Amino acid sequence: MEFYKSDLKLKKFLHIIENSLVFPIIYDSKRTVLSLPPIINGAHSAITLKTKNVLIECTATDLTKAKIVLNTMVTIFSAYCGKKYEVEPVEVIYSSGESFVYPDLSLYNMEVSLSYVNNSIGVALKAEEVL
Asked: Which domain holds residue 122?
């Protein structure tokens, strides 16, 4: 933390995690630091014009909201992949030892009212037109 206090750009963000007992560090399987959110992203994961692979990470205090944001970002970016809509999942290993694979883009059913659908997307569909 002391290292970042002298950086003119980064020191203004340190208060976010400075007094925390723990804070997130994202690193790869070789323990190369990719990001210290919300302070800095690592040079190792910087994007250039030659970048072929992009890691989209999402850090949040609410896992449900993080999953929603991650899934949204991944699906939007995937439209621009070399192989359109191809997404590679990653295994996330938490400090507790638990591991999960993200993003979780599995299908699920949701019940919503017809008026909600119509109002949300600006259409006037009838019940028989909606699955």
From this structure: 60-131
d(CA 11, CA 93): 29
Question: Bridge partners of 86?
Answer: none
Does residue 54 form part of some domain?
no
Cβ-contact 120, 130 below 8 angstroms: no
The answer to whether residues 94 and 70 belong to one domain is yes
Same-domain status, 38 and 64? no
φ, ψ of residue 93 in degrees (nearest 5): -110, 115
Q: Model confidence over 16-48: pLDDT tens digits?
A: 778 877 777 888 888 887 777 777 776 667 788
Is the Cβ–Cβ distance between 75 and 67 less than 8 Å?
A: no
The two tokens of residue 108 are: 């699920």
